[in-house]
Protein: GNAT family N-acetyltransferase
Organism: Clostridium hominis
Amino acid sequence: METISIELSQEVYRSDAEKMVNWLSDKEIISNLNEDSNVTRNLINMINRIDMPILTHLFNNNCSFFTIKNINQTVGFLRLIPKNKGVEIVIAVGEKELWGRGIGYNAVLEALKKAFFDLRTDKVVAKVKKANKRSRNLFKGIGFTEVKELEKEVEYHMTKDAFWKIAS
């Protein structure tokens, strides 16, 4: 199957937020995320309350928020959240028909560049639900190291030094 190229964009438009509401209303998608149970309702309230075409400033509070775009459309989102001398990464590919096409892989690689080069972090952490085999395989496949298994999730780390080896 052909891999789909992507780009990360920090611009968040109303249409992107509306797509996120649809994705976060999908039981299969939300079951794989560690999102607050009120996230969909909060997003709907924000869209209804703010009458602006660009909502970027509302998504970049305390983190770097990106939409994942392929040539035609927004297909997911990614956050880089500064935490405990590192950055936590959260990713969701919302267009299920595109799962398994390399979008997550390419988005995480782009996010690692931003985390290590732009944010100058020493470590990126991914906390993935145990049942989310796709994401677990994604992070292991990129070279993240499994460091902790908790009751409901597995924690993976990528250090700056490990990333340099992968990138070179």
Remarks:
- Residues 7-167 form a domain with the Aminopeptidase fold (CATH 3.40.630.30).
- The chain has one domain: 7-167.
